[in-house]
Design brief:
Length: about 190
């Protein structure tokens, strides 16, 4: 039996306000399906965002930063994507720190892993209208256990979960939010 989407924007927004508690409940529902324990640390530190785009059903994510250390310059993160949900297209540029380089491994479900590097892949899945145009038109389907890395520093990329959602581990150098650049100028953390 496959995990199915159970929540929509009608659940995530009340009077136009993003309901983070509902988004976290949706994540917990997916965790229960996949057998991911919801620990005390997760209860304390999990976060969800709609990236200020008002469409959490299609453009948003949950996550937890296990570590983000500017002194030793390393980062570990869990990415939680509900069914068909995407992270907005973005790039990382150098600031007082080098541009973020990252690698990802899918733990549960699967994702389309998009990059602006490479030829356009046929049959690009539908991108949410709330996101707007993308530069990244090359993708691979990344399945459980597959490890991929950013193809080149400073390049645009994003992930979109398949119809069963996804849990993805990410490892990188220190993440400086000042270096984060979204394609959509409205998108923000």
């Amino acid at each position: 039996m496959k995990y199915l989407k159970k929540y929509t924007n009608a659940d995530y927004y009340k009077n136009g306000e993003f309901q983070q508690d509902v988004a976290i409940e949706a994540m917990k529902d997916m965790f229960a399906y996949y057998g991911v324990p919801f620990t005390e640390l997760m209860a304390k530190d999990i976060w969800v965002t709609d990236f200020s785009l008002g469409d959490f059903e299609h453009v948003g994510m949950g996550g937890i930063f296990w570590v983000n250390d500017p002194e030793y310059k390393y980062f570990a993160h869990a990415i939680y994507l509900l069914p068909d949900q995407m992270i907005p297209e973005h790039a990382h540029v150098a600031t007082n720190f080098p541009a973020k380089h990252e690698s990802w491994m899918v733990e549960k479900g699967w994702v389309y892993n998009f990059s602006e590097i490479g030829d356009e892949t046929p049959k690009v899945p539908t991108i949410a209208a709330s996101h707007g145009p993308i530069k990244s038109k090359n993708y691979v389907i990344q399945k459980v256990g597959d490890v991929l890395r950013l193809k080149a520093l400073g390049t645009y990329h994003f992930m979109m979960a398949g119809p069963e959602g996804a849990v993805v581990s990410e490892w990188a150098c220190y993440h400086d939010n000042d270096g984060l650049r979204f394609t959509n100028p409205i998108a923000a953390l």
